[in-house]
Each structure stands twice: as structure tokens, then as C-alpha cells.
């Protein structure tokens, strides 16, 4: 599928931020094209853990990227139930369920993608409980809460599926944890299926965002057929 103008604009933002992070040596050398595993992620997790929204949360859903590993580990250390997305939303059970009361390895190891893939229980959406906080990986965010991922669309699909199931609600807080250089001042183009974040946390600051934006669920009219066929949980739920 040929990228449209919005896709091209988003990609230009990604490339600019990846280059900026690389030139500042804020990320490892292999971060281009990925959710950046930025230096300072541990401090970001500590800053988030001091917030009341974190202290109140009992159930956390997170992306599986390395950048958010310290937050996933902190969630388990703090006794929170953790759901982690299976990479590429593979299978009809597209989330790992990691219960801190059942760990037989240190929290930071249990929160790793490789460990979860081997030992964590995989669950379907109908087996999950309501989510208090969503942690989403991002390449860029702005202070109004608009975000851009790496371009695969998995975070948007995960959140849309959970909204459709009633597991992400108006009570759920969506948080982006990023390096300060990933917080940009300009506008970010958004489409119907994009969600915004409520809070941005960096090693240096916490930003409370306005203009909350969430889809009502999967926007089937914007979902490419090849994407539906490639993701079993979408194919299973396809309408129309």
C-alpha cells in the first residue's frame, strides 16, 4: 500500500527524532527504526512510580519494548498485575499475563520479552481484567498528547481492542515514557484510529496532556486487509 500524506508526515517526524537521539548519543547505536531504548529509562520509571496515578493503579498493560522494561519490572516489584503485549499481537491470545505473586525469577527478568515468551501465561482478551494504566512505547509525542509509534500500528490496535472489550475506559490512564528529546513542540498528524496519551514522563519532567483522543474500538474502514489477515485476533473479530 502506498503511504498517504499523513503517513509520510509521520515518517518524517520519526526520522527526525531518531536522528536527533542518535546525534545526541541518547540511545544505543541500533535504535533507528525502533521504539528507542533511551538512556535514562530507569530514571523515567522512578519518576512515574512517584505519581499518584501509578500508586492507585493495580493493573498495568505495557508494550514489550526494551525502553519500557524498567517500568514493567517496577510494576511487578510494586505488586501490580502486568499484561504485556505479545510481539506483533501474534495468536488469538495476544497478551502475556504476569502475576507478581507467582514469580520464580527476579521482577526485571520476568518483565523481559524473552522470559515472558518462554514462561508467562498467554491470555485472550476475554480472559483479561480492566486496565488501570496503559504504558505505550513511542518514537515522538507532543505536549497535547499526540503520539507516533514506529509505524507498525500495533499499539493502536492493542488499545482499540481493549477499548472495544471495555477493558480500557475513561478511567484508564495512558502514559508515554520517553527521552526528553522525543517530546516535540510541533503538531503531530492524527487519524481516526490514533489514540492520544494522558501523561508523558521523561527522565526530567512529567507532562499532563489535554485533548484526550481515543477511538471507539477498531476502525475497520481504515484497517488494511493484509493487516487483518496477519493478526489472528483481528481476523477473528473482523466485521463487515
Total discrete domains: 1
Looking at the chains present, what oligomeric state does this protein adopt?
single chain
Can you tell me the residue ranges where pLDDT is under 50 for at least 5 consecutive residues? none
Mean pLDDT across every amino acid position: 94
What is the assigned CATH homologous superfamily? NagB/RpiA/CoA transferase-like
Q: What is the third-level CATH name, the topology? A: Rossmann fold
Strand order in space, largest sheet: 4-3-2-1-5-8-10-11
Shape: globular
Alpha carbon gyration radius:
17 Å
Per CATH, which architecture? 3-Layer(aba) Sandwich
User: How many β-strand stretches?
Assistant: 11
The helix/strand class is: alpha/beta
CATH class: Alpha Beta
Pfam family, one: 5-FTHF_cyc-lig
Keywords: Ligase
Organism: Stackebrandtia nassauensis (strain DSM 44728 / CIP 108903 / NRRL B-16338 / NBRC 102104 / LLR-40K-21)
Protein name: 5-formyltetrahydrofolate cyclo-ligase
Amino acid at each position: 500500500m502506498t503511504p498517504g500524506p499523513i503517513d509520510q508526515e509521520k515518517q518524517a517526524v520519526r526520522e527526525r527524532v531518531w536522528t536527533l537521539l542518535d546525534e545526541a548519543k541518547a540511545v544505543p547505536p541500533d535504535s533507528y527504526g525502533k521504539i528507542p531504548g533511551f538512556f535514562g529509562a530507569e530514571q523515567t520509571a522512578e519518576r512515574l512510580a512517584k505519581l499518584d496515578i501509578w500508586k492507585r493503579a493495580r493493573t498495568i498493560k505495557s508494550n514489550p519494548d526494551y525502553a519500557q522494561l524498567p517500568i514493567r519490572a517496577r510494576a511487578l516489584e510494586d505488586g501490580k498485575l502486568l499484561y504485556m503485549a505479545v510481539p506483533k499481537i501474534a495468536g488469538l491470545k495476544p497478551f502475556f499475563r504476569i502475576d507478581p505473586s507467582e514469580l520464580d525469577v527476579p521482577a526485571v527478568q520476568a518483565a523481559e520479552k524473552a522470559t515472558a515468551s518462554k514462561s508467562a501465561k498467554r491470555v485472550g482478551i476475554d480472559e483479561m481484567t480492566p486496565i488501570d494504566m496503559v504504558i505505550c512505547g513511542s518514537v515522538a509525542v507532543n505536549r497535547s498528547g499526540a503520539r507516533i509509534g514506529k509505524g507498525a500500528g500495533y499499539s493502536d490496535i492493542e488499545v482499540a481492542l481493549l477499548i472495544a472489550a471495555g477493558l480500557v475506559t475513561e478511567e484508564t490512564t495512558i502514559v508515554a515514557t520517553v527521552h526528553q528529546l522525543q517530546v516535540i513542540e510541533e503538531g503531530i498528524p492524527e487519524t481516526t484510529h490514533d489514540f492520544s496519551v494522558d501523561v508523558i514522563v521523561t527522565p526530567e519532567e512529567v507532562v499532563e496532556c489535554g485533548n484526550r483522543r481515543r477511538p471507539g474500538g477498531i476502525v475497520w474502514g481504515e484497517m488494511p486487509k493484509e493487516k487483518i489477515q496477519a493478526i489472528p485476533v483481528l481476523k477473528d473479530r473482523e466485521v463487515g
